[in-house]
Write the structure tokens for this entry.
Amino acid sequence: MRQSAVSFKAKGLNFEGIVATPDDVGSPVPGVVICHPHPLFGGNMDNNVVIALSFTLVEQGFATIRFNFRGVGNSEGEHSKGENEYQEVLGAFELMKAWNGVDGRKLGLVGYSFGTGVILGSKDVQKKAKSIALVSPNIRALSDTPLKKAKTPTMIITGSRDKLVEAENLQENLDEFENAPKFEVVNGADHFWGGMERQAAGPVAEFFAESLK
């Protein structure tokens, strides 16, 4: 695996990220943009779940970009409670689309916790992705997302012990999707996936292998 530190602009602000690609890229590979959890609770692009998603996807032949939202690490700007963070997601898509060895027509999007809220709140972001995965999704954002009306292949994965995203409370939202999401509950996992990161990342990689390749 090759990792490259990158920077990109969005609405006049500079953002930092890391692009990871397989060692041997022959024909162009699909790419996936990864959105990290809540900045005010320590979330950043080096989060355990984000790292597991990136590494597992690269092992399966994808390129990934993980980046810091505004106000995190060396990314400029201030945290906006998810209101403006969609702008840097769009910027990450543009960088991934132009990256050498990436098939810009096959781009996916995955968010974890706060990252899912950014995805679910922005129709512009959703339009950029051929498929979308949501890990431990934000229930409030899920309840009124425009994604429910889209045809975009979608996956939702959460843990059976997640007190912030109780699996039984998701069903009502799932029923409202016009294109039913793939839904998985990982037994024993909580919201933070400690020691079980690969059990989130593996199914996500399988989903993108089906929906992007």
User: Anything to note?
Assistant: The two ends are 19 Å apart (CA to CA). The chain is about 30% helix and 25% strand. The chain has a mean pLDDT of 96.
